Amino acid sequence: MIPELGHFALVLATVLAIIQSVVPLVGAAAGRAAWMAVGAPAAFGQLIALTVAFAALTWAYVASDFSVLNVLQNSHSAKPMLFKVAGVWGNHEGSMLLWVLVLALFGAGVAAAGRGMPMTLRARVVAFQGWVGLGFLTFILATSNPFLRVDPPPLDGLDLNPLLQDPALALHPPFLYLGYVGFSTAFSFALAALVEGRLDAAWARWARPWVLAAWAALTVGIALGSWWAYYELGWGGWWFWDPVENASLLPWLTGTALLHCVAVVEKREALKTWTVLLAIVTFGLSLLGTFLVRSGVLTSVHAFAVDPDRGIFILVLLVLAVGGALALYAWRAPRLSSGGGFAPVSREGAVVINNLLLCTAAATVLIGTLYPLVLEALDAGRVSVGPPYYNATFVPLAAPLIALVAMGPLLAWRRGDAAAALTRLWAAGALALVGVAVVAVWQADGPPLALLGIGLGFWAVGGALVEWAERVRLFRVPLADSLRRAGNLPRAAWGMTLAHAGLGIAALAMTGASVYVQERLVVLEVGQAVEIADYRLTFAGVAPAVGPNYQAERATLDVTTLDGDAVTVLQPERRWYPVAQMGTAEAAIRSSGFADLFATLGEQADDGRWTIRVRHNPLVSWIWIGSGLMALGGVVSLADRRAWRTLRRRVRPPAAAGLPA
Amino acid sequence: MTRRQRRRLMLVSLVMLGAGTAAALSLTALEDNLLFFQSPSQVRGVGADPAEVGQRFRLGGLVAGGTVRRMDDGLTVRFVVTDTAHDVPVVFSGVLPDLFREGQGVVADGHLRPDGVFEAEDILARHDETYMPPEVAEALRAAGEGPLADAPPPAYGARSQDP
Fold it and tell me: Which of A184, A352, A475, B138 is most buried, judged by most C-beta within 10 A?
């Protein structure tokens, strides 16, 4: 009964989406207030209906209702409760339901928060959210209904892919979707602005919190995914330039560009048409990501559940959404008035260069991701594009970006002074030199080019700190005065400092983790030891272990320093999930903060010895600390009082919206 | 030229410069870093273009039954990859993916040695019982093994080593 209720709620949501997408749009065109007012209640209703649908599916999982096909295929009565719940979105149908739920959440959010917006703008934004929702609800009902029944119901389920039974992966899809789907608001705002024919600072202030929220969520989602790959896939890497990873990186790159552009529109009303185009492209890339993951056109570690027919449907949605939006752009964008001018060396100019680099980087990643597909479609052979391609293209573009991130915020709006900015950055330069010197001594054998990456990372962190120190006039006024200034800094400024420092830390850590990693692959008898970095790992044997839905072989490695002082015990496992008929390798990781010791257990040879792989990964945890700081910067910026004041304020003339730059 | 036009021209040239850099970087990088997929039949010179010694490519097929042998060092594994028409011997040092098995599909990155043995640097295998890499399914179809080619759609697999 409950799954039928969910199915009904899904259909109801679709009907509401039709109303939401058509009526306010017609109302805005015809100037009928009552019609425009329909959008918000329809958006709320859609959210409620989809919450009910999602709750119904969750209930089916929690209660292990195996008469529901989706539960049967992806769950098992012995699975731990956390993974029963996470299993709801650990499969195609459920994750698409989560997709539309998040979309409805953003739609209702825009409708609720937009009370101060001009009525036609709000109606149009809500309507465009409705269009996106309608497309995906139709997709679910037509190709991916999670509420289909099986008769007669079997006794137990087929279990979830064991690799997906993991806490970080339970959270990875929701965050990723918050990001992907969150950019739909930017898309709707952009289309609404095109239809309105007006785009001003007020528009940017309404759109900005949504872009920030989506960007922060996507950052967290990507970081969680990379963390999961690091400790769960068992080969100790954290980024593989896998097509599906690229699919999430693409909207992140253009989304980051968008975030900076929206800020420029807000302060200076410049770069307007470019901002609109970026919003369309970013959501288009989010849709492309969904298409790549869900269609199975790519051979990837991530393509767990795929079906080509669904791919065609999403491809059509993608073409309609992006094609339609670009057509509207071509038609209406020339009507948007061009904004304030600026000199090449200025804050705006820095954002333009940031955008160029980010978009170029996105383009190279896109080429590498799609090239094999194109070649295959042309029947020109099957190829794959590996990490060396991305190292040769992405890294040379990321380096100048990180170098410039320290400088941009120190340039004034309209016309900046590059020499003065560089002079003020002497402290960042000093930090970079000291950092490089320390690392050069610590990792004396490393390649010299790596020091460039390390130096750039320190430089970006230093730049963020210098900018903050400038704002609070640190050491120029009494300390108490500086602290008071820090307290009064807008949260958006804090957010930028955190995010830029986080980027520096992440860049530093990514360089270090890629270059200074050590690996030993050995075959050991009980009692033998392997040495790596400054540690000795002694193999103490393998014992059987039993988990809730798996059996395991658990090795014990006693870790000591080379002098013999005990450090820790590592227990990597090989697990076997009998229901899913799958084995996984569980890595054992010990982090000292600066470096991780990482061990995985391989197979047993005929003579009884075991294959063991150990890695020493310096700095690797700082990748996620840096990414976390970036996301935190987004959240702090989101909490800016000015942003909330704008959202709460009732209708007022947009001319009064000017803020001091 | 007015100031405005000059500024526009500069912006456009910057964009062109960026796009040009991207294109140049991508094309040179693609040229050097593409990995072509080949079936055992293609490697053996029966197909369109036989693989050259030392050139990196991806070899895909089935792990032939009864051929997996572990060498005395405990790390090196030898096995034969087949598309049912032709066989290629493979040698690999490292940890095999969890679901590497005889009679199952496999994809290996590596190069041919002068003695005709494929030296794998990286082995990819599936993460689920029913999976057949699409390249392998196609190779088998090309070699005339019909039924296996109808394997269920992918749910892809693990690598043995970090790239």
Answer: A184
